[in-house]
């Protein structure tokens, strides 16, 4: 009975896509989108468009621009139906009826695996639309047009999506590679201050674990970034996106089959803080504090020097991030086990051995985590007092 | 403005799994499952089990066997909760509440990406469970235990899943590679006659497009298969599964990003017939007639010789398949466009140039399709009259 026959299956799948940087994508003389949509086809291609209401509110002319754009290129591309709006932020990921309405449009307008769903919005809307596009016909082509800093430099350029279920963040989702991503910097001007700042933490994160010179550059641009300098932000997004994409390319584990997720430096505490604050604390804000925490822990364990730690904390504080929240207490420790559970297998946490170089450990000393929490909170108070 | 920066992303993902053949998987001295579940882990692994009610009805001792099995190996593996039953056949794919209840069990029992969902049943139940497992935590480990001929030699060993939505078959789904598949031949003895026969058509299909000697072998085993000879069926399943898996391995397009799907010989008409008959005609039965149709078309177009066509039709009829249905009329033609739409892009249809060798065309002559329908229907009547 245990004498068994086995057939072994083994194959590779290749994935590729372009991240394109532009400005004013829907001005009629910008042919990036029309070229992209018609690149793979000899006949007319169809697309539906889904937009974050937060984006529409700040860019009231956008729907008309989109309509005009498609009219202009009517020979080769068709906009099916009218632009579908879904609310920005976690709402879009919490309420299944939005997924349902995207699927309905895909069905009604006959969007197939060679047609397009174009999603315009913050990371949350991109996640919701991405999920619907990934499950319809086992995956129709998705073009992401991220409109926040975080989505342009991190979530929107990755290869996964997620929706909330059973009250759990990203309980459902899939790995799904977009057909293309277009970062249009003209969206960024209307971001609220918190959303402008929030995504900068992902750049600090990836700089700290992979690229010292990028960290130095961020330090040098703190006041430009605070003054909403467009060039500084464009460069930050470009370099951060590039590091993220290279990581996915070279990790050998783009679909996270293992237990390690190096790009999640600072994220175990961040996820827990988001949850403890009922998502009052934004993802990027939570990541900033998670970075502060794990950098302090690296210092207290003797991996990072004190001057190095000071540079990390000062950079984060200098950018206007709050690194002290009342929810930062012993409750945070539970985030460790939840982080392990999410990926399964062995706990794997990224720490810093120097600025620009991360390394992985498989356990954390809870007392030193608590000490780190106190350390950053009193560091913050002292800074503010000055 | 069109002077644009681009970052190119490109990466590979490796997938592998084993298809294991066994008998009486849940006898306590069969250690295949326990070895598999504990192979990747140093600590105790958790699993939930979902079973097709049609299987439970025919194997009433199965639930107890499963319980005893997990008790016996309690040191290394845990069965979480009790076995979840979901109805066999399309019901499981039509009604979202089943997906919901699988997701609930995954959530309640803390099944993570390194824990297991074990699905036991026909192709429909495997599809429904597979979909839920694929979206939970962006994919938890799925072990498929197919219990029908079709699922053991075709659907259960593939890399996708699907559920019905908007009344459309497989409207939603995903590409998702199982952790392992176990074919246990002891399930096959209880299949209804139609389900025993149905999956044989997939073997004929793959033999005709890829492996002449396998087709000859099937011809020689018609009466054994009709007499439900176990050894003949085991060999048929093994060879068919092997050809399917090698195809996926070597196609270079396991996730169907292109417009061609060579394993879907005979399927454009089959899908339409299933739908026109309100799924009264089973998938494998519809495939048998789809093969008859496209083989006849190949003959009428001059690709296949008459003696070759006769062998195909006689083999199919000899196995007891019906190749004439009143739904086989000009309505079927619509299946061509729907087939093209499902994959998108260019219509791509497999035909035969000889027994064992398929080739692709990009259009079909509608009049000759209609002629083929008439041809097989009168061929069938004559055969029956003899
Ligand atoms: N899939 C992934 O890999 C991944 C990775 C990280 C984060 N995420 C997800 O991303 C989400 C967070 O994304 P986010 O930080 O982009 O925030 P968000 O999507 O929650 O958007 C924040 C707010 O900004 C508004 N907004 C968006 N663009 C705007 C613009 N140009 N002008 C004015 N307002 C605008 C939105 O309407 C919303 O109210 C979370 O749901 C998180 O889980 C996903
Ligand atoms: N995912 C894929 O790649 C793929 C490919 C082809 C087909 N499919 C799907 O597979 C499904 C058809 O699968 P199927 O042919 O296995 O039929 P099925 O799953 O519909 O099952 C047929 C019947 O047999 C019963 N049954 C199952 N095992 C039994 C056993 N051992 N003894 C007695 N009864 C048993 C079931 O309860 C059901 O009533 C369709 O939904 C089709 O879309 C999927
Ligand atoms: Zn993040
Ligand atoms: Zn089939």
Tell me the CATH superfamily of the largest domain in chain A.
Dehydroquinate synthase-like - alpha domain
Largest sheet of chain A: 7 strands, parallel
Proportion of beta-strand residues of chain A: 15-25%
H and E order of chain A? EHEHHEEHHEHEHEEEHHHHHHHHHEEH
Number of helices of chain A: 17
Q: What would the principal axes of the Cα set say about the shape of chain A?
A: globular
List keywords for this structure.
homodimer; 386 residues; alpha/beta; Rossmann fold; Dehydroquinate synthase-like, alpha domain; seven-stranded parallel beta sheet; two-stranded antiparallel sheet; 17 helices; binds nicotinamide-adenine-dinucleotide; binds zinc ion; 3-dehydroquinate synthase activity (chains A, B); lyase (chains A, B); Dehydroquinate_synthase (chains A, B); 3-dehydroquinate synthase (chains A, B)
Summarize the structure in words.
Chains A, B: One of its GO terms (molecular function) is 3-dehydroquinate synthase activity. Chains A, B: Residues 84-197 form the 3-dehydroquinate synthase N-terminal domain. Two copies of one chain form a homodimer. Helices cover 47% and strands 19% of the residues of chain A. With 386 residues, the first copy, chain A, is of the alpha/beta class. The first copy, chain A, has two domains: 18-190, Rossmann fold (3-Layer(aba) Sandwich); 193-385, Dehydroquinate synthase-like - alpha domain (Dehydroquinate synthase-like, alpha domain), CATH 1.20.1090. In chain A, the strands form three sheets. In chain A, strands 1, 2, 3, 4, 5, 6 and 9 form a seven-stranded parallel beta sheet that branches. The mean pLDDT of chain A is 94. Chains A and B meet through strand 1, helix 5, strand 7, strand 8 and helix 12 of A and strand 1, helix 5, strand 7, strand 8 and helix 12 of B. The complex binds nicotinamide-adenine-dinucleotide (2 copies) and zinc ion (2 copies). The site of one zinc ion (ZN) has 5 residues of chain B, from helix 14.
